[in-house]
Amino acid sequence: MSEILVLVEHADGDVKKVTLELLTLARSLGEPSAVWAGPGYTDAAKAKLAEYGAGKIYVAESEEIAGYVVAPKAELLAKLVSDASPAAVLVAATAEGKEIAGRLAIKTDSGVITDAVGLGEGFVADQSIFGGGVNVRSRVTKGTPIVAVRPNSTAPVAEPGAGAEEKVEIALSDAARGAKVVERVKQERGARPELTEAAIVVSGGRGVGSGENFSIIEKLADSLGAAVGASRAATDAGWYPHQFQVGQTGKTVSPQLYVAAGISGAIQHRAGMQTSKTIVVINKDSEAPIFEIADFGVVGDLFQVVPQLTEEIEKRK
Ligand SMILES: Cc1cc2nc3c(=O)[nH]c(=O)nc-3n(C[C@H](O)[C@H](O)[C@H](O)COP(=O)(O)OP(=O)(O)OC[C@H]3O[C@@H](n4cnc5c(N)ncnc54)[C@H](O)[C@@H]3O)c2cc1C
C-alpha cells in the first residue's frame, strides 16, 4: 500500500485529536506514516500514533524545528517527500498547517488543496467554498498531493499500526531560519476544548442580549463538553471575546454538532460553520435564514429553551 505522510500536531507531548482524524483518513487511502516535528516526543505519543494506525513514525526532534516559525516543518516534509516518495501528504487545516502546506507545495512543485472537509479515492477532496454556498470536489494534478484537512472532518477510529520509529536528521537551510521564535506565551484556557477542534460548539448571537447572558450559552456548552462560539454581532458588542467569533472574518469550525442560539444566519456567519455535521438552531423568528441549514430547529425564546435544554442534558448524565 502506498505511504501517506501525516504531519503530527502536538502540544506538551500530547498528540492532538486532529492528527488521529488524519491518520484515520489516511488509513482509508493507504499506509499512514506520522511525522513528528520538534521536541517533546514521548512513549505515550508513540503509542497513541501507533494506536491510530501509523505504520511508521518519522521523528525529527531537533530543537531548531520548533525554534523558527513554520519554515523548518515545510523543509522537513519536503525532505521526506523526496526520500520516501509518498502518495500524499496530509496536514491539519489550521493556520500553521495551511502555511506549511503552501510552502511544501512550492518546494516539491506539487499541487495543494486546503480546507478539505473530506478526502476519497484518488485523493479527491471535498471543499465547501464561497461562504459555504458551493461544494467542490478537487484533485491535485501535479506532483505529490498535499491536502490540508479541516479538524472534525472524520471521526477518529483506532486501528493499530506497527509504529516503527525512524529518526530523521535535518540540516535547516538559512532560509528556514528566517524568522525566529523569541517567546512562547501559553494562553490561559479553561476546561473547554479549543474552538476550531471541538466536536461540539455552542454559539450565541445578538439574540443573547448581553455579555452576562452569555453564561447560559456557557452552561449549555459545559453540559455538552463543548466550545463556546459567537457571532460577530455578539463579539462586536463586546459580549464575548473576538477570538471566539465564528465566520468569514472569525474562526472556521466544522464540528459534529453546532448549536446556534439567537443567530440569524448571515452568509458571513454561515461561512464559518456551514460544514458542521449536525446543526441545531434556536431562534424566536421562524423566518430566520439559519433555519435553511438547520438539521433540527426550535422556534422559541432562547432564554426559555437553552436553560431547559441544559437541565435536561444534566439530568441524563
Ligand atoms: C465583511 C463582513 C464580514 C463579516 N464577518 C462575520 C463573521 O465572521 N461572523 C459573523 O457572525 N458575522 C460576520 N459578519 C456580520 C454578519 O453580516 C451579521 O451581521 C452577523 O452575523 C449577525 O449576527 P447575529 O446573527 O448574531 O445577529 P442578528 O442578525 O441581529 O440576528 C439575531 C437573531 O437572534 C434572534 N433572537 C433575538 N432574540 C432572541 C431570543 N430571545 N431567542 C431566540 N432568538 C432570538 C433574532 O430572531 C435574530 O434572528 C460580517 C459582515 C461583513 C460585512
UniProtKB/TrEMBL annotation:
One record GO biological process? fatty acid beta-oxidation using acyl-CoA dehydrogenase
Instruction: Fetch the Pfam families from UniProt.
Output: ETF (PF01012), ETF_alpha (PF00766)
Q: Any idea which UniProt keywords this protein has?
A: FAD, Flavoprotein
In what residue span(s) does the Electron transfer flavoprotein alpha/beta-subunit N-terminal domain sit? Answer: 4-185
Task: Give the cofactor note.
Answer: Binds 1 FAD per dimer.
SUPFAM superfamilies according to UniProt = Adenine nucleotide alpha hydrolases-like, DHS-like NAD/FAD-binding domain
Binding of FAD occurs at 206, 231-232, 245-249, 262-269, 283
Enumerate the SMART domains for this protein: ETF
Keyword Cell inner membrane found: no
Task: Identify which cofactors the protein needs according to its UniProt entry.
Answer: FAD
Q: Which InterPro entries match?
A: DHS-like_NAD/FAD-binding_dom, ETF_a/b_N, ETF_a/FixB, ETF_alpha_N, ETF_asu_C, Rossmann-like_a/b/a_fold
Question: What is said about its interaction partners and assembly?
Answer: Heterodimer of an alpha and a beta subunit.
Q: What does this protein do?
A: The electron transfer flavoprotein serves as a specific electron acceptor for other dehydrogenases. It transfers the electrons to the main respiratory chain via ETF-ubiquinone oxidoreductase (ETF dehydrogenase).
What is this protein called in UniProt? Electron transfer flavoprotein subunit alpha
Organism of origin: Planotetraspora silvatica
Q: Which gene encodes it?
A: fixB
